[in-house]
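Changelog-linked ticket: fe (ii) ion example.
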Amino acid sequence: MRNDAELLDYILSHIDHGTTDLGDEIWYEPVENYSSQARFDSERRLMRRLPIPFCPIAALPEPGSYVARNAAGVPIVVVRDLDGTIRAFRNACRHRGMQLAEGSGHTKLFRCTYHGWAYRLDGRLEYVPHDHGFPNLDKDGNGLVPVHAVNVQSGLVFITQDEPVGPGALESLPDLLSDDQVLFESDEHVDKINWKLTAEGTLEGYHIKPTHPESFFPYGYDNLNVIELQGPNSRVCFPFRRIEKLRDAPRENLSLDRMVTLVNRIFPFASVTRLAQHYNVSLAEPESPTRTRYFSYKLTLPITDGGAVTEEILARAKKDAAFLSDTGNKEDAKVVSDIQAAIGSGANTHYQFGRFESAIGHLHRNLARYLERLDQLERDV
Ligand code: FES
Ligand SMILES: [Fe+2]
């Protein structure tokens, strides 16, 4: 990945020549992959066998903070224990399977609301009411069941539920979030679309002028992107026109904050986007071929001058987030839902992703590669 100074010079050369980054190949993705139940089931099984971002670390600020939600259809709870270690468990009581945590919050113990079994934050079974009813209970063998692995990297908590099929996003992860970014909003919503359509809409700038003529285009360029690949991940840069003011700026310690939008696709289901005044972490939880739940977390920009997050920084971040959700995001959502509605039209056997859309080809190529590996492993069992 280029640093900000290198990125600036590279973008200026595209501006001066009227060019954009071009991939080598056209990618043809079968339309069936957006609607088939078998394909969806494979993607979800893959999701359990790859490191997948569950939440930003900022969502677990102190010992006892937890986040519970489904991941690939499995209820999972992630918690920061009393020593500060981040752990992830299957969210099911060892007595009769009741879920132990819901949403997010702060606790000292996970106490089951059904019969009152209680677990420490490191998962150990601490207390069983009237335990003479379970004379042979092996307490040590009845703690919460952890997922296969937890990795905390680039400001995100990754969980791998089962034996992984490969390193996935962790093969080579860019720097994403820093410790000083403050979480100011989180939400959850459901879209009646296939998750891949939404992902694709964020990975190219070929559509900026026709789709966003009054929201994004006046501040940006028509079809001008820098596309960088890192392992199966990618980063797509959308410069703002005001970047040209930096032409003569000293390159040492140069920051492109507020000058670019950077969409990082964290293979395959997540994204971390650096916007003009805030960051957005978007985590997709596909629920069916036509339904996806999104968990999103909004954070302030990193502090570059050693100061603190002020009210002013926070207000700017919130205003930026509100602008996007009132304008460009609505335009993107309309496109995606119109495509979803036309999937069964029979017009296309494949969608075609051209040389401006190579980050999308990269996502599909890697997804196909990993699904093939999953298929092979499942056949060998
Ligand atoms: S299911 Fe949890 S205590 Fe019974
Ligand atoms: Fe868009």
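Closing comment: Example verified and attached. The mean pLDDT is 96. The radius of gyration is 22 Å.
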